[in-house]
Amino acid sequence: MSTLDLYRSKRDFSRTREPKGVGKSGKASGPQGGAFVVQKHAARRLHYDFRLEQGGVLWSWAVTRGPSLDPAEKRLAVHVEDHPLEYAGFEGTIPAGQYGGGSVIVWDEGRWIPEGDPAAGLKKGHLAFALEGHKLHGRWHLVRLKPRRGEKRDNWLLIKSEDAFARTDEDILETAPNSVKSGLSVEQIGADADKGAVWDTTRPAKQAAAAAKPARKARRRGDDEALPAFVEPCLATLQEKPPAGESWLHEVKFDGYRLEARIDHGEARLLTRSGLDWTARFGKGLIAALAGLPCGSALIDGELVALGEDGISSFSALQQALSDGKTAGLVYFAFDLMHLDGEDLRGEPLLARKERLQHLLEGAPADGPLRYSEHFVEPGQVMLAHACRLGLEGVVSKRADAPYRSGRGRDWIKSKCSQRQEFVIAGYVPSQASPRKLGSIVAGYYEDGELKPAGRVGTGFTAASAAALKAKLDAIAADASPFKGRAGRERGVVWVKPELVAEVAFRAWTASKTLRHASFLGLREDKPAGEVAAEAPVAPDAAPAPGRERMAARKAPGKAEAVETRVTLSSPDKQLWPDAGFTKRDLLAYYARVWPLMRRFVTGRPLSLVRAPDGIEGTRFFQKHAGAGMHPAVRRRKDSDGEELISIEDFDGLAALVQLGTVEIHVWGATLDAIETPDQIIFDLDPDAGVPIERVREAALTVRRHLDELGFDSLLKVSGGKGFHVVVPLKPRADWPRVRGFARDFAKAMEQAEPKLYTATLSKKARRGRIFIDYLRNGRGATAIAPYSTRARPGVTLAMPVEWTDIDSLKPDAFKARDILDGALPPDLWSDFFTRGKPLTGG
What we know:
Layout: H1 5-9, E1 34-42, E2 46-54, E3 57-63, E4 75-84, E5 92-94, E6 102-114, H2 118-124, E7 126-133, E8 137-144, E9 154-160, H3 172-175, H4 186-194, H5 204-211, E10 234-238, E11 248-252, E12 257-264, E13 267-272, H6 283-291, E14 297-305, H7 315-324, E15 331-340, E16 343-344, H8 350-360, E17 370-372, H9 380-390, E18 394-399, E19 407-416, E20 419-430, E21 438-447, E22 450-457, H10 463-474, E23 494-495, E24 501-506, E25 508-509, E26 515-516, E27 519-523, E28 575-577, E29 582-583, H11 584-602, E30 607-611, E31 621-623, E32 635-638, E33 644-647, H12 651-659, E34 662-667, E35 680-687, H13 693-709, E36 715-718, E37 724-729, H14 736-753, E38 758-759, H15 764-767, E39 771-774, E40 784-785, E41 800-802, H16 817-822
Parallel strand pairs: 10-19, 15-17, 38-39
Antiparallel strand pairs: 1-2, 1-6, 2-3, 3-4, 4-9, 5-6, 6-7, 7-8, 8-9, 11-18, 12-13, 12-14, 14-15, 15-16, 18-19, 20-21, 20-23, 20-24, 21-22, 24-27, 25-26, 28-29, 30-31, 30-34, 32-33, 34-40, 35-37, 35-39, 36-37, 36-41
Helix pairs in contact: 11-12
């Protein structure tokens, strides 16, 4: 008997388009896990169907109130019959009169990873597992309740574990209500059914286009997946300080309207964060720029801003431009790419999505209405300090390897220079000097469904903006206050319907939860009043410090020979590598030894630094631009984009980097004098944990063989870390897009030829058991570890050029700075590096 018999017996498949399913035995085969899906189901009563793939079917629970991210919220989940695997993709309408009649959307989907044997857990009544979805993440539990007398239902509880993805300040069902498949709401699909339409789950693109006006064909020949009508945006969580660590990148926090650009075969639309179509509001220039992008279809995330003469975005200026109809100067900064030409990119790492986005926007004029939002890898706290000095709102920090997840989570963290957020306008107080004019507005926010008072906002208005706002408020005047209790009995207030939302800057919250020194910035028409809540910074994710295996410290050697440099080291006996007793003086002495070999690879080209002023066991940070206190030997130079780059020209410059506590030196693949034409390609072979070194060696030899077939010489370098670098010298003729495109295509070809061995995808999930062919180091601004540089790893390991014939006997971390400092200088294997280069393109 099939476990799907009960499912099939409840349905008439001549009337419903639900899948009948092939079905398997239903017997679980160990702790495998698989896909999960949560379907929002508006039947006789709205509920959420929670399904886990196991044993060829979908184990299913009906969660009456839906999943909650709050561990204190234990949601009832009724265990129901198994569903076929094909049901995971079902989205549409079940006809009235059929079992479960109503509309269904795929509210979330992804992968579940069980802890232990799922079959045993199901039998025992406790399933513990992790979810990797668009909206649901982290650890969860399903726990069976003890049945009461006469109880026929198999009742369980769905519970979120206390981890970094737990949330108590947001109802994910409210903030992210729509489908992750089509972008539609369950109401839109239900309305479609009310008109007599039957949702066809085999053609979601047609249905999505029909639900979105004006209708456009959403697929074309060669498309793999339909372009969604709308995707709920990924929202940032407020923190007082930016997150630290190399896994984060940081972007400017823009002061404008968050908009999703939807491009479908020559037609562009702009949608607000709630899915409203605002295309007609921003003039023809931006729409034409989006429609003219070199793609058939795309879904872009970004922000529309008005820039002042200082280049800083201003929400007030944006409001004024829209009010005056002066939209020609508005700029759309694109910072993420969710869909491109039939490919859903949301599962790709952020860095990979941004690379695709940058390539898509390469032809857009630098001063045009459509621009790429650059990111930075300096420490977040440094970025925030720069942003505040420039008068920016703050920074948004994003996990470089995270997928795009709708709703508010901790993949994106926002940090602000001053506090500001949206508030509902509950009323206004006329001016004492002139009662016909507006004196201040009364602000509020929602908490547990009730509007709470936040105090008054009496500054930030111009005469014109105050008059315009008063006219709008008078049009929605109300007889009673929207506040309950004493706040609703305040005298002298003209109460209004709580429909308008104001953006307000303020100094702080008082103990009584009102605003101090609040200033009006403008109205927010892109956010519904019912979604406004008090925004409080959350604590950073608590993560245990990584364990360190301390090596026995060796006795520090005697003083090194004097080095001829004008740079004076402070604290020369400071141990930068405590495990090896390797000091700042030792580091300078090592570089003095290898300088004749290293010089040609680090001088005259942009550098990025890994600094550890207190040693590698202390705080480390990545620095790409010049900072205060740098020695004059560290040169500063702006490129064509106005970006201030750092470089060195001589050993004094290198000594100055040592003085700064630089433990790694990374270089661009181009010189300052020919910055747009790289002179090398680097393939970084990065193995997943557990991949044997023999496979990494074989991968390097395979890369070499394929490059040789294409007519390119390639050289080998041990990285000082986990893998090898295969480096190709180039004649600097091809530009960055051409070089990056070649490297990407080469890596993708290796992945396609042997997908079980290699991946060209950055995500950890894609790397499992494979070697990542990292081609991302070949983009403009990307860097790779310099030959002969030390690494911030125990033992003072080195990145070192080596002979191909030695690969079988070498490990990537084989070379140590102490050995070279105390022994012989390595041979100059790359003396002819820059004469061996061949052009990537003709000419």
